[in-house]
Design goal:
The complex is a heterodimer of chains A (285) and B (322). By secondary structure, chain A is of the alpha/beta class. Chain A has one domain (58-280): 2-enoyl-CoA Hydratase, Chain A, domain 1 (Alpha-Beta Complex), CATH 3.90.226.10. Chain A contains ten helices and ten strands. In chain A, the strands form two sheets. In chain A, strands 3-5-6-7-8-9-10 form a seven-stranded mixed beta sheet, sandwiched between helices. Chain B has 322 residues and is an alpha/beta fold. In chain B, helix 1 (10-25) packs antiparallel against helix 2 (32-51) and helix 10 packs across helix 11. The chains are: A alpha/beta (285), B alpha/beta (322). At the A-B interface, strand 4, helix 5, helix 6, helix 7 and helix 8 of A face helix 7, helix 8, helix 9, helix 10 and helix 11 of B. Strand 4 (80-82) of chain A pairs antiparallel with strand 9 of chain B. Bound molecules: zinc ion. Residues 30, 32-33, 35, 49, 51-52, 54 of chain A line the site of zinc ion.
């Protein structure tokens, strides 16, 4: 299913990029526990609620800051932007949709690729931005992902991907579908090079992204309560004509059913990733 | 055998009905010349309609209830097809079938394909060709068998999508598909993919990574069905024709953007109009493709991943602002 299959009830709109949703106010209300939080306090808490641990949705900028040593990184393939090979028009032309997204988010695509280090371990790191057309995967995401693996192999560096996506980008039709094959084949190359691949699944990760690179981690790490699915909850409910049980398709559910290795609080993410990398990867002296 | 006519075929069936009427009158009056003329007219009309199919009309042909399905092909192409069942974990998923069989001129090959049902009862059994994770895992088990015994793999794609059910999610539909993409990309035997009907999204691609990707002339392949695309982008079910146009989901479309390698021609009017001809065409194409693959240097053992990465890395378009 694609990014658009989300429903308002199932994907918490209030969680959109914390920094954008509270530009003026000093205070923000936690949508889960209704606690009134001081904005700075939330930020210091890595955009998680100090009272109920709700993980607010954040973007690539915040993740780079949280995970990378001193927040320092070099960005790669930053100038790639979507093309429109199909001349796709629905209620508006695809290029207009892209231009709107670029203007609205100040991003060029729904994924960014960087190199940096995590507790002194050099890494290649990709991160998705859900704000950019629902974090959907088109040709640019596939290409950035592929280039990230090329860099990882060339530098003998582990690869880490932070997913947040509604799935495939419909406006690139079959080409977006093929990015699932492209990214998975590149991961097979990374595996042959015996370099670790850590997949970090954040809220929400669905559709073609889940059914390709997000599920293929040597180690899959999910953020608490993140929605992780192939078919979105609304589509499943329509299929079975029943309400889904609470917690269905959430991170803890995936852990229980064997599809995530661990559920890790954002505050422990960096040290956990570093620990796993040290356990899997022989570091150059 | 009169096949079920689609709406856009009505001008043809109307004329054919008229000819029948004239024939029955022919017992009293000689109308043979008029009938001959009418028959020629029907043929011209048929040519015209099928040379100018819209994308939505092709989608309808791909879903035609009498269209040949995977087991129809497999049982005709191989005299000894032996179906193998089960994922060795949970159960056997009848929405995906697989097994080995001998094709004359090639030898033993593995066939894996989505399987739709012909009637309601069969469709309930086959889940309308919508696999659960066990279907993908069974396919993977068979792919590994093919690799072990060095047999080429032929996958026939025909699904409205992977099943979006509760148990499917619980048992890891996404992981099952992802795992297949990963494993198929490095399987050390030639893999030929043929979209024979509907190639809907990850559910199709889950058995769709290979060295050569072919589509039957009237099949479709995309990231979403025109109906779902319509409901999401237009927020109404009523724009399926427009969605089919926008998605560019036909074989000629996908050949032009480099997603597929070859179009397999269908008999005039669609595969169901002359299944025997369709089977014969596909047999010839498969023999040709596999023979070619076997004699290419690139297909040496140990090079599968390299050639598939090369193939799929080329798929995509972007602009570089630099
Ligand atoms: Zn809270």
């Amino acid at each position: 299913m694609a990014w658009f299959a989300r429903s308002k009830e199932n994907i918490d709109r209030s969680a959109i990029k914390a920094t954008d949703t509270m530009p003026d106010g000093m205070w923000v209300k936690c949508p889960d526990c209704k606690e009134i939080l001081y904005k700075k306090q939330l930020e210091d808490n890595l955009f998680t609620c100090p009272k109920c641990d709700k993980h607010f949705r954040i973007g690539s900028d915040e993740y780079f800051l949280i995970l990378l040593d001193d927040g320092v990184f070099v960005e790669h393939a930053a100038t790639l932007i979507p093309d429109d090979p199909l001349g796709f028009v629905d209620t508006k032309p695809y290029p207009t949709r892209v231009a709107d997204a670029i203007r609205k988010t100040d991003l060029k695509e729904s994924m960014r690729l960087v190199t940096g280090s995590i507790e002194q371990i050099p890494v290649v790191l990709g991160a998705m931005d859900f704000d950019f057309i629902g974090g959907s995967m088109g040709s640019v995401v596939g290409e950035k992902f592929a280039r990230g693996i090329d860099i990882a192999i060339a530098t003998q560096t582990p690869y880490i991907m932070i997913s947040s996506s509604g799935g495939a980008r419909m406006q690139e039709a079959a080409l977006s579908l093929m990015q699932m094959a492209k990214t998975s084949a590149k991961l097979a190359q990374l595996a042959n090079a015996r370099l670790p691949y850590i997949s970090i699944l954040t809220d929400p990760t669905t559709g073609g992204v889940t059914a390709s690179f997000a599920m293929l981690g040597d180690v899959n790490i999910a953020e608490p309560k993140a929605l992780i699915a192939f078919a979105g909850p609304r589509v499943v409910e329509q299929t079975i004509r029943k309400k889904l049980p609470p917690g269905f398709q959430r991170a803890e559910f995936l852990l229980e059913h064997g599809f995530a290795d661990m559920v890790v609080h954002r505050k422990e993410m960096k040290q956990t990733v570093a620990k796993v990398l040290r356990q899997l990867h022989t570091l150059p002296l | 055998m009169a096949a079920t006519a689609l709406e856009f075929e009505k001008p043809i069936t109307d004329l054919e009905a008229k000819i029948e009427e004239m024939r029955s009158l022919g017992e009293s009056v000689d109308l043979s010349e008029e009938i001959l003329m009418m028959e020629q007219k029907v043929e011209v009309l048929r040519q015209e309609i099928f040379e100018n199919l819209t994308r939505w009309q092709r989608v309808q042909l791909a879903r035609h209830p009498e269209r040949p399905y995977t087991l129809d092909y497999v049982n005709t192409l191989t005299p000894d097809f032996t179906e193998l069942h089960g994922d060795r974990g949970v159960h056997d998923d009848p929405a995906i079938v697989g097994g080995f069989g001998t094709i004359e001129g090639i030898g033993s090959v593995l066939f894996v394909g989505h399987q739709k049902g012909r009637d309601t009862k069969q469709n309930v059994y086959r889940n309308f060709g919508m696999p659960n994770p066990e279907g993908y895992r069974k396919a993977l088990r068979l792919f590994k068998l093919a690799e072990k015994f060095r047999r080429p793999v032929i996958c026939l794609l025909d699904t409205p999508g992977a099943f979006p059910g509760l148990e499917a999610e619980e048992r890891g539909q996404a992981e099952a598909i992802a795992r297949n993409l990963f494993e198929m990309s490095k399987l050390e035997v030639p893999i030929i993919i043929v979209v024979i009907g509907e190639g809907a999204s990850g559910g199709a691609l889950g058995i769709g990574v290979g060295d050569r990707v072919l589509m039957l002339e009237n099949s479709w392949y995309s990231v979403i069905s025109p109906e779902s695309c319509s409901s999401i982008l237009w927020r109404s079910w009523g724009f399926k024709e427009q969605a089919a146009e926008a998605l560019k989901l036909t074989a000629p479309d996908l050949l032009s953007i480099g997603v597929i390698d070859r179009i397999v021609p269908e008999p005039l009017g669609g595969a169901h109009r002359d299944p025997d001809q369709m089977f014969a065409t596909l047999r010839d194409v498969l023999v040709e493709e596999i023979t070619a693959l076997r004699t290419t240097e690139e297909f040496e053992h140990g090079k599968a991943l390299e050639r598939r990465v090369k193939k799929f890395s080329k798929m995509g378009y972007w602009k570089d602002e630099n």
